[in-house]
Amino acid sequence: MLFNSLSFLVFFPIVFVIYWFVTNGNLKWQNILLLVASYYFYACWDYRFLFLLIFSTGLDFYTGLKMDESVNDQRRRIWFWVSVIINLGFLGIFKYYNFFIGSFAEGLSRLGIHLNVWTIRVILPVGISFYTFHGLSYVIDIYNRKIKAERNFVDYSLFVSYFPLLVAGPIERATHLLPQVKHERTFDSENAIRGIELMVWGFFKKVVIADSIAVIVNRVFDEYTSYGSVALIIAAITFSFQIYCDFSGYSDIAIGTSKLLGIDLIQNFNFPYLSRNIAEFWRRWHISLSTWFRDYLYIPLGGSKVSRIFSVRNVFIIFLVSGIWHGANWTFIVWGGIHALLFMPSFLVGSNRKYKEDIVHQNKWVPSFRDIFQIIITFSVVTFAWIFFRAASLSKAFQYVTDIIVNKKGRALGLTNVEIISYFIAFAIFFINSIYRLYRKNNLVKTSRFLQFTVTFLLLILITVLGQFSRQSFIYFQF
Amino acid sequence: MKTFLKFSFGLFFAFIVANGLYLFLLPHIDWEFRKTKEAHGFKNQHLKVLVFGNSTAMDGVNTDLIDKHFGPAYNFSVGGASLLTNYIQLSDYLLHNERPEKVLLFLSSAHVKYYNPNEVNPIVDYYYGNSLPVSGLKDIPLFKFRWLVIENIKKLLSTNHRTAKIIKGQLRIKSIVPDNSSKKNDTTIRCLNESFYNNEGYEYMWRIASLCKERNIQFEVFELPCWKFAQNECADLVLQNKVIQNHFNLIMHNLNNYSKCDTLLDPNKDWLSLNHLNYNGSIKVTSEIIRILSR
Questions:
Q1: Residue closest to A2 by CA, chosen among A470, A467, A389
Q2: Residues of A identified as active-site
Q3: Which pLDDT band, with edges at 50, 70 and 90, does A69 fall under?
Q4: Nearest to A189 among B1, B147, B149 (CB)
Q5: Count of A–B CB contacts within 8 Å?
Q6: Which residues contact A305 (CB under 8 A, 6 or more apart)?
Q7: Which of A128, B54, B88, B102 lies 20 to 30 Å from A394 when distance is taken between CA atoms?
Q8: pTM beyond 0.95
Q9: Cβ contacts (< 8 Å) between A417 and chain B: which residues?
Q10: ipTM score of the complex?
Q11: Which residues of B touch A461 (CB under 8 A)?
């Protein structure tokens, strides 16, 4: 089931009403309801993979208990690795097997050794990267004695399968979500109104911006050889906005939906395109994934507290792993590698921790020229890297970049008047509301109920008038 | 909970009011809404010539000129109209009015693919349909007539759109967008054969033809011109119906023929967009239509 579908428009109000009005505030029944709703939500996509989800949940629940009960560290370690290997094994088979075996065979064939490799035809289960990481964070935290194993299977299953975040995150931690699952919830009107605001804003970003500009992006990236340099640059910039609006739109809908159910999810985006360097960008983009890699990969590898050469290695590892997490394609790995290279200068001179706390023009209405310059540079290099992320193959990505550099003559975008007017309205509202939200976050403007109402109402009208409702899936579903 | 419910129901109520207001305003501000309302209101009319098609015919067929040669005429065409839409309009007209002498159906180069042959233009559906004004989510006015928001915003931005008029169903826009395209060498491949017009998408063209035949109304089909790059070198085509039961032939008059367009139209003065003629272009093409009909 997609958030941007009619089914969700029916599904969620039913869940909401039963959750608050029928269960009578009984936590046990609320959790059972959410779990059933989550499994139904997932099964709407493909019921067969529901069994994989339940198996993965059961495995982590069981190994978690076994680790807790283990009398010695060796047994604890065994159960830990059982869980990690099986979890990563599923992920590897479904997501990476064909890629690695294919790349291996191709590598050998270049050495003159020809192998007939056995590949599998399998659909990638939606959300597998997300729920596997949920489970892994839980198991790792138990192994590191940060948390105790959960003894209630329903509560644990809900932590893994909670429908707002099941298929595309944010990737939650047991330390943050499990206590909320176990804690009695009371309805908070202010929180719920903020939930509605976020949902509407998320829908706007998804159906009005991302899905509309997807038409331009798809057209140009599919037939990039026939377009001129200017069109190629515009399409690359457009993709930067498409992927941001698509993914942050999903996150906002997920967080908003969850707020309506009285559960707070972690923030996933924090104005990433206002970052002043790559390190700041990664503290503001897909926050739940980057902090996951930081806590469960980078720090265990030694982080920056090892020799310079090893800390550089660690940086490359997390960026490359982050790249391949997105998909089994060299384009994603190169994308990760580009980010590692872009991150490296500030890492080496020690300025990567700059801008750690504040956000651009905090407590100021307008950023400084220096800030603006840094934002433009950061956005440009991030956009350059997105070309590799979006391209169908590495050779196409390199050709795309070459065509921009050689200032190739070719087709223009050829937008109609209607498209130009629609995009202008959509982007104007997107920028105005983004600035309003930034000012609100920086406490420069006070929000009032009237303003909340007016903004939400206007966004609803624009969604109705300009939204694309062709059931376009969210980009991050494929990851 | 009370604050939340007030907020939510407030939003819902405001949304309904906005939709109601939009639906109220449309017949006052929108050309197509106004003309469809007018056409739907025809009772006991004595029109001699009825024109059907989509936006290309709405802009490109000058009914005022036809009127002067053949008697009262009206252009029923609306934007994005499928053949089913035209069929519904004609059926309704014939039910409440006197038999016309001629029915002219115009296919634009966009006719090559009627993506949704069974979809009815929402404005026509609103006036001619039997359903309740809002019977489902798709019927919410701001959604159902969403493209008209942008169309009407154009009026705020362009004087040509503000000063455009609907005369006897024709939308007269005076702006000019020159055709800078050039003829393609492979235009012969654009010649469509009989079997093309006998596929599912054209069922309602034959049904319109059948309605006319039953009532002894002269029925003519035209392909309207397009910019040079989409013009063809095809001759008029005699089509034999194989879609519906009663068998008959009709002629497809090809106005999109390169040589014809070359003598008829000025690429620098007669166009609004790649397949829409402006007022100047409509006079020239309609003169040619009149010449054909007078043969």
A1: A470
A2: 326
A3: confident
A4: B1
A5: 54
A6: A311
A7: A128
A8: no
A9: 154
A10: 0.80
A11: 15, 18, 142
